Amino acid sequence: MMKATEAVAARLGTLKPRVAIVLGSGLGFLADEVAQAIRIPYRTIPGFPEPGVAGHKGELVAGTLEGVPVLVQAGRFHLYEGHPAAVAGLPTRVFAELGVEILIVTNAAGGVRRTFPGGTLMLIADHLNLMWRNPLIGQPEPGEQRFPIMHEPYDGELRALASTVAREAGIRMEEGVYAALLGPSYETPSEVRMLERLGADAVGMSTAPEVLVARSRGMRCLGFSIITNPGAGITGEALSHAEVLAVSEQVARKLAVVVKGVLQRIK
Ligand code: HPA
C-alpha cells in the first residue's frame, strides 16, 4: 500500500468511503456539508503537494454526505502548476486503494459548443485527452491494468441516474464532451474552433488524469463541467479567472443538488 494511503487510512478509523468527490472551482462549500467530517490536510499526506490556485483548498474531507460514506477532495493538482500527471492522479490512486468504488469529478470549463453559454451545467459524456500526458505511464501500480480500456470512461448507468435526478429537480443539464488541455493559458479563438471540429463541447485543464487512473482501477466515474464562460472568440469578450469563479459558484449550487440526489439513490 502506498504511504499516502496509509496516512489517510490511519485518519479514517472505521469509515469506509464508497464514493470520492473531486471538487472543482466554486464547489468548495460541498466539503462543509460533510457530516462527522474528518479533515485531512494535504501537508499530512506523503507525496501530496500544497495546492496553489485561488479558490482551491488543500484537504481531503472524509465523512458522510446524504448518508453515504464519502471522501471529498478539496483542491486538485493541475499539470499547469508543474505537477507530473502521476501527481494529478495520486489522490485517485489513494481512493482506489481505500476501496472507493465511484469517482465523481467536477470542474470549471469554457464552452465550445455554441449553445453552451456561461452558466451551463454539463454532464460529461466522454473526454478528449489533449494534454498529451498520462498518469499511467511507467510501471503499472499493483491492481492496475497495463492497457486500460476507455470505451466507457464515464459510467452509463451513473449518467442516466444523474440525468433523472436533474430532471426531477427541474435543473437543466446538458451533456457533452470535455476536452482536457494542459493550460495554463486560455485558448486562442482558433484553438476553440479546432476543438469544436474535434468534437469537444467544453474545454478545461483538469479531470482527464483522474479519470484515467480511476478507470485503470475499475472505478466507475461520473463527471460534471460548470461552463463559466464561452470559449475564446465565441462572443468576442475577454475572460478573467475572477469571472470564472463568480459564475461557477452560482451553477455549483445546482450541481450540488444533482450530486446529492445521485448519492441518495446509490445508498
Ligand atoms: N478554457 C479552459 N479552461 C477553463 C475555461 C476556458 O475557457 N474556463 C474555465 N476553465
Describe this structure in words.
- The protein is α/β, with parallel strands linked by helices and 267 residues long.
- It has a single domain, classed as Rossmann fold (3-Layer(aba) Sandwich), CATH 3.40.50.
- 30% of the residues lie in helices and 25% in strands.
- It contains seven helices and nine strands.
- It has helices at residues 3-12, 85-88, 90-97, 156-168, 189-198, 208-216, 241-266, and strands at 19-23, 35-41, 59-65, 68-74, 102-111, 120-129, 174-180, 202-204, 220-230.
- A five-stranded mixed barrel has the order 5-8-7-6-9.
- β6 (120-129), α4 and β7 (174-180) form a beta-alpha-beta unit.
- The longest helix has 26 residues, at 241-266.
- The model has no long low-confidence stretch (mean pLDDT 93).
- It binds hypoxanthine (HPA).
